[in-house]
Request: fold
Amino acid sequence: MLINLSSALVNTLQERRQQLANLIDFPAILWSGNTNPRNFPANVFPYRASSHFLYFAGLPIPNAAIRLEAGKLELFLNEPAPSSALWHGEIPKREEIAEKIGANVARPMAELESWVEGAATIATQDAATWTQQSQLLNRWVLPQNPPQGIDLELAKAIVSLRLTHDAGALAELRQAAAVTVAAHKAGIAATASAKIEAEVRAAMEAVFITHNMTTAYNSIVTVHGEVLHNEHYHHPLQPGDLLLVDVGAETRMGWAADVTRTWPVSSKFSSTQRDIYNVVLAAHDACIAQIRPGVEYADIHLLAASVIAEGLVELGILRGYPQDLVAIDAHALFFPHGIGHLLGLDVHDMEDLGDLAGYEEGRTRSHRFGLGYLRLNRPLRPGMLVTIEPGFYQVPAILNDANVRSKYQNVVNWERLTQFADVRGIRIENDVLVTDEGSEVLTAALPSDANTVEDLVL
Amino acid sequence: MLINLSSALVNTLQERRQQLANLIDFPAILWSGNTNPRNFPANVFPYRASSHFLYFAGLPIPNAAIRLEAGKLELFLNEPAPSSALWHGEIPKREEIAEKIGANVARPMAELESWVEGAATIATQDAATWTQQSQLLNRWVLPQNPPQGIDLELAKAIVSLRLTHDAGALAELRQAAAVTVAAHKAGIAATASAKIEAEVRAAMEAVFITHNMTTAYNSIVTVHGEVLHNEHYHHPLQPGDLLLVDVGAETRMGWAADVTRTWPVSSKFSSTQRDIYNVVLAAHDACIAQIRPGVEYADIHLLAASVIAEGLVELGILRGYPQDLVAIDAHALFFPHGIGHLLGLDVHDMEDLGDLAGYEEGRTRSHRFGLGYLRLNRPLRPGMLVTIEPGFYQVPAILNDANVRSKYQNVVNWERLTQFADVRGIRIENDVLVTDEGSEVLTAALPSDANTVEDLVL
Reply:
């Protein structure tokens, strides 16, 4: 089965190819990539095509390549093996697929070697394919190596296109957002009867499966929000726990959502939990209010840091003036990650290219503790989709570190902090589109204020 | 988080290492393997350790290696990076893991190169790891190449151990079977209100997620059972459809179940569906009744072929004597795959070694249409776990093939066959343990007779 592409989407794909042609004067060959074997060759992980391929070809076609030149697309794809009809049913022929994606020409894969002269590419993630890329192009094309020469020029051109989303992309991103909102609502509803984290995760991922979507990344559903990338789901849900849930859908054409909510297992925040929750929410709301074209995303990050510092001062956890606290990274004791990242075909969009997409040319990562994890450092432009995801965590590796405690001895009221022991981790994350006027929260249908969240859990 | 191993399981692991030592007089190094990136390096598919590693080490430890010699296990593993505590929480130290799995020594990975002399290995599935294996051992260790020399000796030794299951393995396999039975019951229950296949799949996989298990293979949940490996889930469920569901769980330690049921969407089989269903069920029951030590699995396959041929003769679809029909592979027009396969840590157990596990030494695949897909050809022994999965399918690629129609022109009553158009595909599959006395069906708690299945759907 192939997804049917609307004629609008085929037009979108052709526009993307033409836009690429306006940026580069050499051909580009993009491979879709192969499946990854799980424990033996025939037992594979679900197929995920390369995002760069998907951007121009639209469909996840395994083991294909497209050659883009002057706005034209040549599809390279082998016909299905005769035996495959027995096992996999009638697989569309090369010509049918070519027509579906609006290809100008379709050829067998073996002919690709006659068409590689002067072509740029981007490494896929799977070894079978990047080995093939390296052999055909007669240079190392490795996912871990930053692109060079024309490959770098191609990468920059693609970044400049993928940084802002066209109508075709937005239609997919809105679908991913809507299904993600539905999944979170299902997760909240499942909490009352759930005994362990895994039951909430099951209720949420079942919504994705029902919509023929997948998770865009491995779900986080945890009462131990202090572990930032927690992929365990076996802990019991106990009264007094907060459940931090970072779960997002990916559509069949590969577009992602990325949403976090934190809700009280018992449907009631404790007063300390509510206090911190409202600090995080204030940061979240303040950031979104500032999002508009021209604003520096790094300033949004610093705004979140500042609002969090201010809130923690008001709660008596930090001491000093918010701006001074941010200047010495005191906010990062509790908010050690960036305020968010680009979102698109990848949940960290184009992160396969390192910081090429996330960082404006000439900018590099800060060495500051409070800024180094920022994944996006560019002025915002209409059509960019970013996450806004402030948080508060009591990470033992940070707060129990002797150097940290010594450096921030007088800045943190450590005694007061102990009263917030029931707040291990809180994050609120939404997907925010930069518009001409300001912003639109694609995931706004999922409430984030404390009272409404409590009502939903009940 | 590490799964806690019972002392009984640690003893089991040590026994397996001792048994290996009784079979080979050279050291073996088994790598666990790495994660596979999905669309960028930090966004990975869920981790699955190599089954051979799991068999001796018990736990899925990423990026580890074990060196087995004379019954002793040396664990090679790097300590978690200091930064990992921030993102992933406290990861157990090498020594803790070593103790948990009963290792005799634990060393950093960098020391492994001093211990490779004369060691055999088995290729992992991920390229990063088999590249490392090849470099350290100074020979090509590729998953697609059959093992040679001492690697082949090691593979044969491991096959001889993994062919039959010890108590530790059986405890896991029973868990996988029980959760799979629960998932199928949930899927049957979800059918009444489901509009598309995906909803039934969601209800089933949610059961696995709830139990912190995964699918052992990509689920098949389809009203188009005639496509044998159908991984699409978008078709509507319509009255009169049969839903063919092949879904199995895998435990956290990697042990698999593999179960298929076929049920009527509307809760009632049509008379033609019931007739064919009962033919498949008769084959299923006859095969299981024959399973005992010493019986040739290929004979079980031929028994299934014969019962199916007989049933189709009775229904007027085939003409002739069952044994004659089987001799000319007429059964394979409708039952084109093997009666089953080994089941263990892999759903096709040890298929990473080609037919080394499935085929008794000296035997090779038949070129006969009706036998070539048989994955297991050995005499049965107590402790073997096999699937029994007869089926009936109207595969267009077979039945519409001009050569097939010509060859079987007089053997098939093509006119009569058209009356069975509402039977696109039926399979009944259970997991059967060979015992000293005969057999035990690990998945027997899931009914398979037509009336009970109908009652469950209602």
